[in-house]
Structure formats: C-alpha cells, structure tokens
Amino acid sequence: MKKYITTPIYYLNGLPHIGHAYTSILGDVMKKFETMRGNEVYYTTGTDEHGQKNQHSIEESGLSADEFLTRQSENFRNLFVDLGIDFDYFVRTSRPEHKKIVQEILQTIYDRGLIVKKSYEGLYCEGCEQFKKKSDLDENGCCPDHKKAPKAISEENYFFRLEPYRQWLIDYINTHPDWIQPAKYANEVLGMLKEPLDDLCISRPKSRVWLGVELPFDHDYVTYIWFDALVNYISTLNYGHNPDFEEIWANSHHLIAKDILKPHCIYWPIMLHALGVAPVRHYFIHGYWIGEGGVKMSKSLGNVVDPVEVIRLLGVDALRFYLIHNMTLGGDSQISIPMLKQGYKILANNIGNLQMRVLKMTQKSLDGKVPSADSLNDDDKKLVSGIADRFTRLFSQELSLEVISELADSVVKAGDAVNAYFAANEPWVLAKKPEQRERFEAVVYTTLECLRLIGLAMYPLTPASARKIEDSLGLAQVSFKADFTPFKLAAGTTVKVGDPLFPMVE
Ligand code: ME8
C-alpha cells in the first residue's frame, strides 16, 4: 500500500536553516527506507506562503508578492534538491489549486454551523501568528519563543469551536497508543487537553492582513496559518476531487518538530473530524537542534549552523549522517561546526578508511578482482551473517523514528566490527606470505562483502556515498533494495579504487 509522508511547510520570510533541512532530510531517509523495502511512497515538503510575517517581508523587499514568494520558495526547494531530498511534490500554498480546496473546506465547515463570528480582544504574537493567553507568556510578559511582548488587538473575527471535540480527541489518543510518537508527546497533548479548549481564531481582516486565502463566506477576511497551512496535507492529495484520497490518507505520516505539536495534534484532528475525515495515521515528532553547550542558535551568538556552509565544508552526506545519527529521540540535540567535523571524522575513519584500505589491497594483491569465498572460516561467516541479519531485521521493522536512528547506529557499529576484524586479521601481513594465500583471500572477501552490506544499508542515510561504495565494488545499483542476503558478492568482480569517500578536511 502506498505510504504518504509529509513535513511541515516552512515559513519563507527567511532563508532555510538547519532545522528545516533536518526535517526534510529525515522525511527523505524515511522515504528511501520504505522504497528499499518495496513500498511506494509519496513524499511532500514545501513552503507556507501566507501570513503577516511573510507579508511584512514582502513589503520590506520592495518586490511583488509573487516575485518575493517565488524567489524565497526556490531557496528552500534548491537547498532540498542539493541535499539529495527526493520529494514527490513541493507544496506552495500560494498555488490556486490549494487555495480553492481551503475555500471548499471552509465553506463545508461553515455550512455545518461550526464557524462563528465574534468580537475578540487578545494579545497577538506575530512570531507565532497566534493569540496568546497571559499564562502563555514569560515573566516579562513576552512570548517565550520569540522574546517579544505580544500586541493587544481588538477585532471581529471568525472562530472555529474546538471544545465540543475535546473528549473525542482524548478518547482517540487513549485508544491509539502509537498515534503520536514518541509517546512523551502524546502525554503532552493529553496535558493540553485537561483544560477546556478556547475557540480557534481562523481569520484576519483584510485591512490588517492581505496575504491569505479569502474566506468564501466573507470577502473582507482572509484565513491563513492553520486553516490554510494544515490543509496542505490534504489539498496536495486533491481532497474532495480524488476517489483514491481515503486509501492514501489511511497510510499517512506527519513529520514535525515539537514546536507545532498543538496545531497538529489538537486543531488538525478536530478540523478533520468536523469534516468527516479520519486523522492522520501517525505523527513522528522530533526535538530541536540547539547550539553547542545547549544554547539556542542565534545570529547574535554567532552559533547558527548554516546548511549551505556545511555542504561546502563537509559535503551533503556528512550533514545528512550527522543529523540522523545525533538527534536524541524525544529531546533536543546539539550541533556546531566542530561537532559536525567530529562526526565527519567518525564516517571517514570508520567507513571511508576501511573502504580505501580494502580496495587498495584488492587492487594491489588481487589484480583488482574480488577473491573467492570458498575458504571462509566460521568467524568470517559469522561476521558477514551477523551484519546481514542485523540489517535484515532492521529493514523489516515498522517505520518509526527509533528505526531510523537505529539504522545510523547500526551502520557505525557494523563499521566498527569490520574494522576490528580487519585489524585483528592483519591481511597486509597475510598478503606477504604465499602459504597464507587462502586466508588472505578469505579476509579480503569477508571485508568486501561486509562493505557491500554496509553500503546498501547506508543508502537511505547517505545516498551518494552508498552509490560510490556499490560502484567501487563493481555493482551497478539501479535501485537499492533491502535484500541483505549474504555472500552475494561474486568472485572475479572487478573493483575500482576511485576517490576517497570522505576526504581529509581541515
Ligand atoms: O511552523 N530544530 O514553519 P517554520 C529542528 N509554517 N527542527 C526545526 C528547528 C530546529 N531548531 N527549527 C525549525 C511553521 N524546525 C509553519 C508550519 S505546517 C502545516 C506549518 C523545523 O518555518 C521543524 O520541522 O517555523 C519545525 O516543526 C518546523 O521547522 C517549523 O517551521
């Protein structure tokens, strides 16, 4: 059955940063993991192009809205392409097809009497694009995320009632324990549901905000953020006009960070329920990347990690691997250029060196041909089979954040095991002793075969390096499949030494 994986759609008033890169890389790793298992995946990421924040940036830029949005959106799209992210559709909420579906949904819910107009006075945080309660603010009366005092605003707006659905949502969470993963976040949502839910303000008067989707039942207002942005997940599937919608939606997975837990796990399922649509199948929720030492990344502290800079310094695969390998599940994780360089060293010393050493040895002492596997001893076989079994088991598990994190860990552990084997068997000594020829060939075969299996498992994480490994072993992988049957590397295959996978960096 086809799986549908989504990331949040990102605000495009600034440039894409490491957090945006991370979620979209993670989605790509999940897609590749699933594709290797033979599952079809439809993967979307994209940009959220409405709202006051984006509107202010347009006004400051001096460009037309269309020029600004297209330029900014391209920055995200181009970065994601550079990062090897294989999205099937790049969402842009400024597209007319999306806006039309937002309007259809609004009209349906309005006709059901679930949207009401009323006058409202509140404290508005532009950073969050949300009204705040006093209890949401810090001791200085500022938004804890944006460190700015929200503005007092009084205006008439349209509201969607959430409270009638609170008990339904509590019951749904309690009866679907794997719905929100990790479970810690399900508990957080249940905590938010202990108090009655305020009505959700879903409109802004055009006099204040023009960058949004016009309400179909009141032309003086627009909607944006949640009634616009969340709808992207189903407008992409052409909801309301696609007979196959239910089938693919039944297998949908939202990937988000903890910052947008409430809109995704409270507003969105209630909106869908009001519409008569089932909730998303799973949420995968990750923590935040923060600077080294546990401080928030900020321009003033000079600790912002720019993905473009990391690609230039260390390459795409090093960034992808670091992000997947080092994200703590259910918590925040630290990142800095020195930490990324340390992560690069692990890859270079572990996988890169092993590959180069064994290939050069094959080139020099075996005429560049994979030797025979006929004289492998029990330890050799155990090493190969152990790695093959581990990856087979891993790739047969249900998709989750744990499995993806375990994959990166297993690659490093398998690399460590093969390095230890290589060092203990000293094939460079065996190579010089004609009477040890069989043993030498067995050690080289074992190492090359392990490398093949590791390269295959690396594909979701570091696709370019995986291709290079397979290519160096004389294997042209058209598409990578999760078949870890051991001892498939054929004797006599010609290997290629090529450039190092992870060359030395300063
Ligand atoms: O909230 N660490 O957009 P946004 C990890 N448009 N991930 C991070 C991160 C960090 N430090 N910072 C951001 C919005 N992210 C709305 C979403 S969805 C229908 C609308 C990632 O540009 C993470 O995925 O603020 C987070 O949820 C998202 O970017 C927020 O992106």
- What gap, in angstroms, lies between the N and C termini? 47 Å
| Quaternary status | single chain
Rounded to an integer, what's the Rg over CA atoms?
26 Å
Our count of helices gives 18
Spatial ordering of strands, largest sheet? 3-2-1-12-13-7
* Ligand roster: ligand ME8
Question: Which stretches are poorly predicted, pLDDT < 50 over at least 5 residues?
Answer: none
Average pLDDT for all residues? 95
Helical content stands at 40-55%
Task: Characterize the main sheet.
Answer: 6 strands, parallel
Strand content: 15-25%
**Shape type:** elongated
Structural class: alpha/beta
Number of strands: 15
Q: What report would you give on this structure?
A:
By secondary structure, the chain is α/β, with parallel strands linked by helices. The protein is built from 18 helices and 15 strands. The chain has a six-stranded parallel beta sheet with strand order 3-2-1-12-13-7, sandwiched between helices. Helix 1 links the parallel strand 1 and strand 2. The longest helix is centred in the C-terminal third of the chain and has 29 residues. It is elongated, with a radius of gyration of 26 Å. It starts with a strand and ends in a 34-residue tail after the last helix. The mean pLDDT is 95. It binds ligand ME8.
Question: In a few lines, what is going on in this structure?
Answer:
With 506 residues, the chain is of the alpha/beta class.
